[in-house]
Fold each of these.
Amino acid sequence: MRLPRDSNLRQPNVTAPHRLPGLDWLNFFVANFQTGFGPFISVYLTSTGWTQGAIGAALSTGTIASMASQVPAGALVDAMRSKRTAAATAIAAVGVSALAIALWPNFLAISAAEVVHSFASAILGPAIAAITLVLVDPGAFGERLGRNARYAAIGNAVAAGVMGVCAYYLGDRAVFLFAAVLAIPALAALATLREADSASLRPSPSASPRVRARSCNRSWQFLMDRRLIAFAVCAVLFHLANAAMLPIAAAAVTKRAESEAGLIIAACLVGPQLITAILSPWAGWAAETWGRRPILLLGFSALPIRGILLAFATDPFLIIAIQLFDGLGAAVFGVLFPLIVADVTRNTGHYTTSLGLVGLAIGGGATLSTALAGLVADDLGVGAAFLSLAAVGLIATALVWALMPETRVRANA
Amino acid sequence: MPRLFDPLRKIACAIAGYRRNGRVTLQIVGGALVIAIATGANPSAWHAPTPAEGVYDSTESTESTEALGARFQRFARTDLFRILGKELHSPSGQAMGRIVDLLVDEAGRPSAAIIDFGGFLGVGIRKIAIDWDTLRFDQNGKKDAVVTDLGRDQIKAAPEYKDSNDVVAIVTAPQSEQHGLAPDPGW
């Protein structure tokens, strides 16, 4: 994507990052309908009379499918010329799986929906990142990713509120019907991004037929990129430290708080999203201006601080305040994950494959996190669990400092 | 995993049952469906409770048939109900959680119901075992909710139920001493 007109990186020419309302809404609605697929699905299945064993089996199927599809889905998006088609198919598939979950809560349909949803989600994230990469100039990519993360965070926050109300007044099934309906505005937002297809005809970092034509041995050398491996290792540790903090803190709130426990947990979910919405564009701007390393270190350092504070906090309202640090970490990671991978895979034609690879690392770290922290919490108590997570976060921060080089590439370099 | 086979087995058995004895299958309605079809699939494994055992209630809503060497009892849909997934309410009508599992003693009598307690959109849920004797199922003939005598405060501080633990702490009403709370494991 090295076109002559790119020389001034503060003035993107393809499309200014703030002039893509379709991309804003796409991120908003996608985050919106994905919220229902979280831990809420086990609540819903419980309410339809599922046994715990069956719920565990269906959700594990989804987890395994999600891990298994990260890299193939990324490679598929790389291979597809139209990232918009990839994203549209994935959105439709997520909508259909939400509908199936709402209408046929039997084991076969739910397991199938979980698998379809996992694969579609593994396509959707990289596809949106690739569309963004095609639509904006390299110099404006960080800022645009910040904006993407902002609208995704707002979507998450709004969805948590709306779906909570939905579940309370209309029943658990309504949450999934609502999620299915949201696929329609998401597709409409995607439909407005026509430039994404025409622009992708140019040689771009995400899809370059010339690069793909190289020999197999050569084209997979991007996997050996030291920067990509270093970032993947840091990402595993980030999520190993991060993923279990909210569930354990929320369970502690359930145990300690009075009847308003549900509202406090809701605040622990929504509060960090608002912080993410506020900080993400700044994180994108700062990563372009000051470089990736300092911002990455800042975001990672929020983890040990949060873990140590949660270990000693007992007041539920204090837990809400500490959870706001989650917003800083999420903003930095949400922006720098697609940004650093784009830096590292520039002109290789393997952007979304690499996103899938790091996505696999993230999934592994997050899954291990809840399992290991749960064991520590059972045997040694919640405080010890938070301190262990803080220690992992500290190691993650140290590894960023020791292993991660600055990956920013100046557009005219 | 049994869920996977349930629908398939139901269909297969319904077809088999219909071919062997169309009359019986056609009479099956509502809640009795699962029981009667399971009987058709495996007659030797099902022992229908006799009237002497006190389960059979000779009201107009039930009837008994003999076919293929097994007895079928039919109950009206409103006389039987599933318990997994039912909401648990406090006496004041406050939602306390959902019943997700049952614990029975050696004699097969229910000792406790495991409930999903608290949380928001599935985050922060704790599994807690509630004494079966505190549960009431006859809320003005309304069968979609189960009521417990326990209050929210009595339940929330209980240690979490874990399938793997040796000791199960069952939350029970203060006046009854039959179970008692196990020591809090470090929470």
Amino acid sequence: MPENILNVYEQVERNKLRSALVIVGFIFFVVGFVWLVGQILQTDSSLIVAAIVFSLGSSLTGYFWGDKIILTLSRARQVSKKEYFDLYTVTENLCLAAQIPFPKIYVIKSPAMNAFATGRDPKHAVVCATTGLIEKLNRSELEAVIAHEISHIVGYDIRLMTIVAILVGMVTLLSDWIWRTGRSSGNSRRQKGNPLNLIIGLPVLVLTPLVAKLIQLAISRSREYLADASAVKLTRQPQELINALKKLKVDNFPLRSARSATAHLYITNPFKGSARGLSRLNHLFSTHPPLENRISALEKMI
Amino acid sequence: MIPNLAASANKYFKHEKSILKALAEARKAITEAVKSGQTAKMLDAQDMVQKLLGSIKVVVESNPELKAAGVVTRLMEELRDTSDKIMYARRTLIDLSADYNRMRVTIPSNLVAKLFGFREEKGLTTPISGAHLEVSPEEMKTPKIS
């Protein structure tokens, strides 16, 4: 549940601060980790330089091009007013109410019902919905869902969430890569004799995704309640958001183009209904609060 | 744009003019029946409506791609969106003036407001009388967009 009540400005400041902290923390984590590895392996300092370049590079990428990377990964396409009249005009109207510039509108072609917002600030923002969502919700319910995404934009949640998505993705890639090189050099141990790679590779494999996942969790759970509440403040119709969430709950199509690094961006867990969504461990590490709790929180507003 | 859409929607509806005529007759019959207060007449009117519903169904079923449908839905969508935009614009004005007025009277911002003589904002006012309530003949003409 939401911890203490913040107003929008406090929330914006906190999200900006947290975005900066995540970047700084990430750089320290990567550099520190590589330094430790260097100490054990007695290598030269070129490894640390590489770590600094990598962490700086991925942070900058996350800040400036995170939205584009996420949209490409999700196979989203920019659409016009003619193609998706309701989605487009609903977003226009909500931007009027929220007093933010009009974001770009993207659509993912998928029967799954989901939506997300990304970007670094309201001036560089994107709202993205799946075709399944647009087809199965009526205009008022779509309005409620888009209002939820617009509140993520207004509160600068998108900056923090986009950066986290990119950094989590980078860490996952890196740990994958270290694990593979560790294993391949393990195979050729007879020639080179370097079992240390494996010894380091193992904790990297276990630890880094775990840390990344924990950050993802800490960031997204309470945020959804806050965005739901702000969405109701925009539309003044809690019932429509409740109806939309109920429809989302029944929907069981997993969104194929979602990655575990981008899961926390979506309005509901994109893996529900798939094997990944059903496992107990995944429920414990869920990036989203249960829909029932969100619905009952909204029902108190009526 | 909306008046034009409405005009073209009307043109399409001319095809179903006969049904509209029947509909009007049925309505007339119903009002008459209600006025007279006789149950028998009411039953007659009910029959009429039921027959009419049947013929409407026939028309809709015989032309599954009613040309009017596309234009009409488009018109409805545009209308809904326009009314939504007006609603949001009005509410934004109300919200902002309410926030401003609250700031103006609460500590500490009221000190600044007093110092510079900030006036109270009226918010959304709906005038009940005035020239805008009368329609001039020029305003009755529909602007034509080709």
Amino acid sequence: MPDRVQITEAAAEVVRQLKASHGSLMFHLSGGCCDGSAPMCFAEGDFMVGSRDLQIGTIEGCPFYIAADTFTYYKNSAITIDVTKGRGASFSLEIPLGVRFLMRSEILEAGLE
Amino acid sequence: MKYPKPTFKARYENFIGGQWTAPVDGQYFDNPSPIDGANFCEIPRSNEKDIDLAVKAAWTAAASWTKTSASERSRILNKIADRIEENLPMLAAVETWENGKAIRETLNADLPLAVDHFRYFASVIRSESGDISDINADTVSMEVHEPLGVVGQIIPWNFPILMATWKVAPALAAGNCIVLKPAEQTPTSILVLMELIEDLLPAGVLNIVNGFGPEAGKPLATHPDIKKVAFTGETTTGRLIMQYASENIIPVTLELGGKSPNVFHKSVMAEDDAFLNKAIEGFVLFALNQGEVCTCPSRALIHEDIYEAFIAKCIERVKAIKLGDPLDDSTMMGAQASNDQFEKILSYIDIGKKEGAELLTGGDAFENPSYPDGHYMQPTVFKGTNDMRIFQEEIFGPVVSVTTFKDDDDALEIANDTLYGLGAGVWTRDVHQMQKFSRGIQAGRVWCNCYHDYPAHASFGGYKKSGIGRENHKMMLNHYRHTKNVLVSYSQDALGFF
């Protein structure tokens, strides 16, 4: 699968900061309410990657996963992980820093496959 | 009428074992209001040490609380309801300031529903009973209920007090003690409520530990002495909660949101009457609570024959939504709950535009002259097709995606073409069509000729990826207790095997 995830320099800096205190990291794109439709960042191995999760990219050395059923709607999307200030909830590791990872999207006419 | 900004303490604490308790490591975080973007109090930044203290305090209290009579628990729940009711305008202003929602909603929905919810569970535990079966002439089987003990509850930020109430009232009614973690965006509303009711509950029955998900939520969800976890939020954390629960082999209830279809049939436009007016409001309810509702009717499906006429009336009503100061009771839509939420909504509006959806109204932030640093959105209506991301992903903002359908089968197919199944709306003057859709849509709640009504007496929960278990209704009691079977033989005769 082609890599379809990029990261902004500001978000990459947060990832490097988190790696220094948590070690290897991974991302999983969440759906649903509240803090959903946004990427979640965990220590690698803390979140159990499922057999139906797909790795759609690597950012700052961290694998980025999405559930296969969600991916159905991402076939024409290329996404960039950014960061914004904000007091998000969830178990994502950047929350205590007062920032939140955010997904920005480009829609491609031809798709990536 | 404009309500004054409520006064807050400079700093709040955890509530553990009946005492306001500073976090063990002495750390706090700032709590900003989305109304003006400014910090208004400090909240404990707790960790596993505070969770441990709270779980211990809860188990100490459980020794007696799990044995209290139903009448005693009922009496206390009714007193909690009375206390909320006596302080309703103050709590409404606190919740509005912390969450950003318009005070007309906290005054008329969030808090009256919380009051009623406590009263509902106070009443049902007085009227329900277990089952007894005569297995045969000498054998009686009794199904009796026992509380789980100590449960963990993780509360979302969209209805801070009401969502806490949905979890706290049935858990207490069923005889459990609780360790509750409010959302990090909206902890103060629950703490102010706890200050009001602390004298009503025995020490340790309800414990509140504040903090961030990875630091306080995770130790609560993985704690070996927690017997059930209830969570409302998004799917990845939902999966984590299930994964953590599997370590301890405990049950979970999860409410994880949706992308709820709101279906408007041709007959809606058959008359220009009160019902048509109600249906138009039913469309505009996507803007209730700034769209930060798990059941937000964020997909509107309109019969193609009435589309032009009906959407024109709906857009007119959307444009009449009054934005402004959330503390003014004439304001209809307030601030989004946090900056990151606001940015996410804008990012999805960007996606909708790039996907080629037609923007019918809104589509940008709202510059609030009263609060230039707050996080306000314009109510936004897109027209597009159900395969677009704005039709499939929960935006959790005041954004509705509209499409048309040809006939009933087409409408049902679109309505069910989603990963989620929490809520749905059906609007029709034809009872046969109503039955077809209420049973045909795969969702835990189908509102028929109404929307966004949340009586305590009606179950609520998800099909598909919207979650597991139910909230509300007395069936909720069984999500907070064991069923024990007591099997009694009155026969004096041995089985004869040995």
